[in-house]
Amino acid sequence: MWDEAEFAFALLVSGLAIGLMYSLIALGFVLIYKATDAINFAQGEFVMLAGFMATTALAAQMPIWAAIAAAILGMIALSFVLERTVLRPLLGRPVVAVIMATIGLAAILRGLPPITIGAQTKALPLPIGDEPITLWSAVIPPVQVVGVIVSVGFLAVFTWFFLKSRMGIAMRAVADNQQVAMAMGINVERYFAIAWAMAGVVSALGGIIWGSMLGVDTQLSLIGLKVFPVVILGGLDSIVGAVIGGLIVGVVESIAAGYLDPYVGGGTKDFAPYVLMILMLMFKPYGLFGTHRIERV
Predict the structure, then answer these.
(1) What is the helix (H) or strand (E) element at residue 135, kind and residue range?
(2) Does pLDDT of 2 surpass 70?
(3) How far apart are CA 258 and CA 252, in angstroms?
(4) What residue ranges do the domains of the chain occupy?
């Protein structure tokens, strides 16, 4: 029989692991926002589509590593195509135009799998074994361990990219002011495409990891909505915020499921992050680490 400390520790570890996996998906939001100053509401659909790409490759008898590579390359190619055909014509338009375009794009992408390969749930097994890892009272599935490692690695890489590399600094300049960036000789269209391609890579990794945990179907796209409170809490343009926000949301979900669900019959972990998001918007609308913008009128 677990005592209270063991139970709390198990909830904390589980929440932190899930939170880091949320952070990986949130990174896709941050990448797009940093480069284009717009929110990509199709991020969840990108994750779903990557999962379908991987399962389709496996169904074609491809090895798992080849299927993962195919999903990543497929999402990069899709991101380039969508940026070139749908989003580039909106360059220089009001941000709301880009946001509405991503909402429409999300609806289209969500409808593609059912009319092409079917809507039934597909398994996405990874060759990582089934033996869970025990850390005192916490039992962590291997797929979550892989998710944590991948998330931490890519978050570190992208943090360095935006803070230290010339390309990352240029992308930040594009997000700050597209017209000024053009005047300085920065190829805005190229950096738009790079940002979307990077978001495609993140979506592919997230789709493979979450698809392995939950199975791949159209409901996987809801992960985008699950992650939205993460980017609001941390700040839309902060990679560090994506990490901290993910950890907070993961822990809050885990604690709500462990302590509140037994009394109310379940479901509290699904809305608890949105309560946090609303409170953050009320008292700190730029998030914990978001950039404060002062507009002159």
Answers:
(1) strand 133-135
(2) no
(3) 10
(4) 24-126+148-283
